[in-house]
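User: Run a structure prediction on this.
Assistant: Running it now.
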Amino acid sequence: MKIGWHLGNKKPVTDLDWEILRTVPPGVVVLLPKEGISPEDGKRILGVNPACHFIIRPYFSPREVTGPVLQEYIDFCKSCIDEWRTLPEGQKHLQVFNEPNMPRWAQWEGFGDQLEDMKRFEDCFVAAYSQLKRHDPSWLIGLTPLTPGNRDVWFPGDARGYYYFHGPSGCAENLTAEQRTRAFHESPCRYSIEIADEYYDHIYIHETREAYREGWYGLRFSRYNLYRPPKPVWITEAGFPNKDNMPEWAESSLIAWFDRLLTENVTGLALWILGDNPQWGPMWYREGRIIPTVYAIKRWRDALNNLQEEDPVMPPMRIDAAAVHIRWNIEEAIREIERGDTEAARKRLKRLVNQQNGVAYRLERNLKSV
């Protein structure tokens, strides 16, 4: 899994940003093109890590989406990918639009959270994808990330009806494969989901210490994946939503979350956010210095890289992450038994104690490297 950073919005890369990028060389960066960050910055980032992936997301201001407005935005996207065309093949990605499910009254970047809004987004995404792929097929175009909630996907307590990822048949907690297929075919955005090269998500931990254990919160994409084909998943905004939501337990919570994501279908994530915009940050430094959490992320990533060099199958596991991992799996096994799926519970518990890839083995391997 590639760990990286979401660069600042509408601000140049600062000296402290560069210090963070050197401390944790990014596997991925997310950026707004033409907003203070240039292709020259991209070359410098490639100097830090030549394998870094770039996800550019041209900004789309909140306004009514008509044919001329849509074409203006698509043409803007074309100019952005032309400007960044020298990025390495396979490492250049494009996000069109942003958080389309934001209600229209919010005056954000969204299309809205009603059925007609979902249909408008479907038409606009398909049109943008088609034109941009013809313009430069070397770019990977991902399905636009949704804001958590606002009719992205149903969870218990939500109203029945249409959601971006499914139709009314998906409004149930436990779905059979047949029910999931039917719900997906009811989705107003089915074709967008099918044609996208990959998927982008916004998943935050927020104020809940173990939100990564809660599918409706820290691992919302687990529910998304019920309706998506098996393609790469990038979390383009990850971690904590702003500086006020980074409590004293942020470090251990992030590390445990990374360990969980190793077992999920996640290609990489960009932690929110660098830059010095007072609305959102500074997230990762205080009083002119990098906060200790950045160095903890570096240690985790270095340990993962070192262990994978020895054994590419086995990621390391810290003791605190192991405790979370064990507790979560036991609770999942109990739920599976209660649902009558004893075979799934048996396999889950067997994986915990397996001598070749269980938790004890992973802990032993990791502690030897400390």
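Confidence is low (pLDDT under 50) at residues 310-314.
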